[in-house]
Design brief:
Layout: H1 7-26, E1 29-30, H2 33-41, E2 47-58, E3 61-66, E4 71-75, H3 81-84, E5 92-100, E6 105-114, E7 120-121, H4 136-160, H5 163-195, H6 203-224, H7 229-257, H8 283-320
Helix pairs in contact: 1-8, 4-5, 4-7, 4-8, 5-6, 5-7, 5-8, 6-7
Length: 325
């Protein structure tokens, strides 16, 4: 498509991706007072970011109401008084607090943001790692779309015998492989901080590894076949169609029917993609997720178009110089 060759499109896409990455890392995370108390009592972390509205200030402490409507008393320590002095009643704060088990109140450690434009929720067990949802999950979804599109092109090639569909199938499958690899890398980073290791052969990790091998074999098959171009394309198309049959099973079914540390494994509900068809996450985070999906999808379509045009040029050159085939 001509739009993917436009410099304006590439500039706008680059700017949109830069803004998305900036917002993903700069948007403050704010939980509830219950989150802070639970994480502290379980020994997970002593200081937790909380999003709350200032209600009143009196001798007993400063009263706040968090995003779930729960009230909490926050004690303003001398070290944090300077930053708190400019805060007005009804202001919304994202602040780091430490839970005081004895008095069942909270000590203000730091004010992160006053009246933020948007915030992300505190996801239990993830904390700051929740930002990775804006990269890991959208990349996985785009990888699925890419493999599906590659399969459609392979079917069209078998029906119409048009080599351009074969080129598009190769390009789409290559994009799917790339996004699966990136999803694996971001997932490994997630695993390192959540589970203590980059890789532990969890069912989710194992299934994605098998998927990479299956599509890696697709490209190896194309390079090793010494048949005519038509026969090579037909064999590759049939393999690509069969390979896609494994994608829903390896991506969505197997990880959910086996015990897994990954959200959604062993019958647990994943926050975004789950069997119930419902999402269990904040609306802001969900909207940012879908924006990420659209942006990564645009990147994939640009890669597919670029690779398809490259293959056309290679085939045209090979026709002019038969010894290159």
């Amino acid at each position: 498509m001509r739009i993917f060759r436009s410099n304006i499109f590439l500039c706008l896409l680059g700017v949109a991706l830069a803004v998305q990455v900036y917002l993903a890392f700069e948007t403050p995370i704010g939980g509830s007072f219950s989150d802070a108390a639970m994480l502290s009592m379980n020994g997970v972390q002593d200081v937790t970011p909380v999003k709350a509205t200032l209600l009143s200030t009196d001798s007993s402490g400063t009263q706040f109401k968090d995003l779930y409507g729960q009230s909490g008393t926050v004690r303003i320590t001398p070290a944090s008084f300077g930053t708190f002095s400019s805060v007005q009643k009804e202001d919304v704060l994202v602040m780091s607090v430490a839970y005081n088990r004895t008095e069942k109140s909270f000590d203000l450690v730091e004010i992160i943001r006053v009246n933020p434009v948007m915030t992300f929720p505190m996801i239990q067990g993830l904390g700051e790692l929740g930002r990775n949802m804006l990269f890991h999950v959208p990349m996985s979804m785009v990888a699925f779309i890419a493999f599906f599109l590659g399969t459609i092109y392979s079917i069209l090639y078998l029906v119409k015998k048009d080599f351009d569909f074969d080129r598009r199938a190769r390009a789409a499958s290559a994009g799917g492989f790339l996004f699966t690899l990136m999803a694996t890398i971001t997932g490994s980073i997630w695993a390192r901080f959540s589970w203590g290791t980059f890789w532990n052969w969890d069912p989710r990790e194992t299934s994605i590894f098998i998927l990479l091998l299956i599509y890696g074999a697709y490209f190896m098959l194309r390079s090793l076949l010494e048949e005519s171009e038509d026969k090579k394309a037909r064999i590759a198309a049939v393999y690509n169609i069969i390979a896609f049959v494994t994608v829903p099973f390896l991506m969505f079914i197997l990880p959910r029917i086996t015990q897994s540390l990954h959200p959604g494994g062993g019958g647990t509900e994943a926050p975004i993609i789950n069997l119930s068809g419902q999402t269990h996450t904040d609306r802001t985070l969900l909207n940012m997720h879908w924006i990420s999906v659209i942006l990564f999808l645009m990147v994939f379509l640009w890669i597919k178009d670029l690779y398809t045009r490259t293959l056309r040029l290679q085939d045209k050159k090979a026709e002019q110089e038969p010894g290159l085939r």
